[in-house]
């Protein structure tokens, strides 16, 4: 049997938009279609990147400068790409990642300071890979924050930053989608889970045609 082509799909959006929920739902649907799926996340997704994740998400919001934070996210991504994403794609699997480089573009590049040129330069040196399809889950940050507050562990230094920060992030993700419409689809995430999943599957079908 011929091996299917690998497919790299990412979910992006503000904190609490439902990325993990939709990534799991899409993985289950793809498996029912007979595809082998690797469901992964950033920061993290490989053993080394999970170690770097702990450095990133724990501690005070000002623990790292924007530049250091960008270097750490990029180092984690390089390990994730080398050890998990690229090998899976090379063997015909579908890789679904809960966040990837767009999160760095938006969180470090726009919302935490004007570091976009630094972020892009590092991406060009160390990553040089874009997803085949990016699903941007878009919703009102107040609703997303309320979802997050209901389940928060208190360990995530990014979620400490409140509504104004989430509004900047939302605008950043929408701007990215506008700049790369061939890769990115914006999906209204302020609806029941099943409706969002139906749109995610439709976006994938449309993106593959
Ligand atoms: N469509 C939905 N309607 C209501 N609640 C939802 C919906 N989707 C997800 N949730 C709930 O909202 C919370 C956040 O969802 P989830 O973890 O999938 O979001 P996330 O975008 O991955 O979050 P984070 O960025 O913080 O990791 C969870 O408690 C989840 O059960
Ligand atoms: C990949 C990536 C992530 N972040 C931020 C976004 C989140 O607030 C935290 C942890 O991610 P999770 O979705 O809650 O698991 O990290 C970031 O600032 N830059 C990035 O590149």
Automatic annotation (TrEMBL):
CDD domains in UniProt: TMPK (cd01672)
Please provide the record's keywords in A-Z order.
ATP-binding, Kinase, Nucleotide biosynthesis, Nucleotide-binding, Transferase
Kindly report, in one word, the top-level EC class recorded for this enzyme. Answer: transferase
Reaction(s) catalysed by this chain's protein: dTMP + ATP = dTDP + ADP
Q: What is its EC number?
A: 2.7.4.9
Provide one Gene Ontology biological process annotation: dUDP biosynthetic process
Question: What are the GO cellular component annotations?
Answer: cytosol
Please report the stretch or stretches of sequence annotated as the Thymidylate kinase-like domain. Answer: 11-199
Keyword Glycosyltransferase appears in the UniProt entry:
no
Q: Which residues bind ATP?
A: 13-20
Report the InterPro entries cross-referenced here: P-loop_NTPase (IPR027417), Thymidylate_kin-like_dom (IPR039430), Thymidylate_kin_CS (IPR018095), Thymidylate_kinase (IPR018094)
Mention one GO molecular function: ATP binding
Q: Which Pfam families match?
A: Thymidylate_kin
Q: What does the UniProt record say this protein does?
A: Phosphorylation of dTMP to form dTDP in both de novo and salvage pathways of dTTP synthesis.
**Family designation:** Belongs to the thymidylate kinase family.
Q: Give the protein's recorded name.
A: Thymidylate kinase
Q: Which organism is it from?
A: Vannielia litorea
């Amino acid at each position: 049997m011929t091996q299917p082509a690998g497919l790299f799909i990412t979910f992006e959006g503000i904190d609490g938009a439902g990325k993990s929920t939709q990534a799991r739902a899409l993985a289950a649907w793809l498996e029912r279609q007979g595809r082998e799926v690797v469901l992964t996340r950033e920061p993290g997704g490989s053993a080394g990147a999970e170690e770097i994740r702990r450095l990133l998400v724990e501690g005070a919001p000002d623990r790292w400068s924007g530049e250091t934070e960008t270097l750490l996210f990029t180092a984690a991504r390089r390990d994730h790409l080398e050890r998990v994403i690229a090998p899976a794609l090379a063997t015909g699997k579908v890789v679904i990642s809960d966040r990837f480089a767009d999160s760095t573009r938006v969180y470090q590049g726009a919302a935490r300071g004007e570091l976009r040129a630094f972020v892009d330069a590092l991406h060009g040196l160390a990553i040089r890979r874009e997803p085949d399809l990016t699903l941007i889950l878009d919703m009102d940050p107040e609703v997303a924050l309320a979802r997050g507050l209901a389940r928060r562990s208190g360990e995530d230094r990014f979620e400490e930053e409140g509504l104004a920060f989430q509004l900047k992030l939302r605008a950043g993700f929408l701007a990215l989608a506008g700049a790369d419409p061939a890769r990115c689809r914006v999906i209204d995430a302020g609806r029941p889970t099943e409706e969002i999943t139906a749109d995610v599957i439709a976006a994938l079908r449309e993106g593959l045609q």
